[in-house]
Amino acid sequence: QAQFVESGGGVVQPGGSLTISCAASFVIAEYNAILWYRQAPGKAHEWVATITRHGTTWYQDSVEGRFTVSRDDAKNTVTLQMNSLRPEDTAAYLCNAADNNYNTQFPWGQGTQVTVSS
User: Fold this and answer.
1) Which tens digits make up the pLDDT trace of 36-83?
2) Could you tell me how far CA 44 lies from the centroid of its own chain?
3) CA 56 → CA 16, 53, 59, distances in Å?
4) Could you tell me which of 92, 91, 95 has the C-alpha nearest to residue 71?
5) Residue (of 69, 38, 37) closest to 52 by Cα position
6) CA 21 to chain centre
7) How far is CA 4 from CA 50, 56, 68, 104, 118, in A?
8) How far is Cα 106 from Cα 28, in angstroms, rounded to an integer?
9) Does the first or last residue of the chain, that is N or C, have fewer Cβ atoms within 10 Å of its Cβ?
10) What confidence score (pLDDT) does residue 3 get?
11) Handedness of CA 52, 47, 109, 75 (dihedral sign)
């Protein structure tokens, strides 16, 4: 039973932009925060961004200023706007809900693949 459905990934040239989304099968406002992670082939999950139920956001240093996370509680959806993409941003992007200690709550899904290549 999927808890999240990530979508919007694709192939983009370096410097390009892409917007990906995460649709939850539950009420996202019931959780402390929604987290975006990414996973490159052969590597562990890497935290990318956080948005709390109050709208506070944090970003990994490498994406600060390039990525923007937002949420629509009415649609139980979280969006990640990615600009100035770099080849090192290539990965599967996944989302998860977090408790008050920012621990993930659900098994990881498949994510949506973002490939930055010329």
Assistant:
1) 999 998 999 999 999 999 999 999 999 999 999 999 999 999 999 999
2) 15
3) 26, 8, 11
4) 95
5) 69
6) 7
7) 16, 21, 19, 13, 30
8) 13
9) N
10) 86
11) positive
Q: Are 92 and 74 in contact (CB under 8 A)?
A: no
Tell me which residue of 5, 39, 42 sits closest to 24, measured CA to CA.
5
Percent of the chain residues past pLDDT 90, beyond the cut: 91
Give the distance, in angstroms, between the CA of residue 82 and the centroid of all CA atoms in the same chain: 10
Transcribe 2-32 into DSSP letters: -SEEEE--EEE-TT--EEEEEEESS-GGGSS
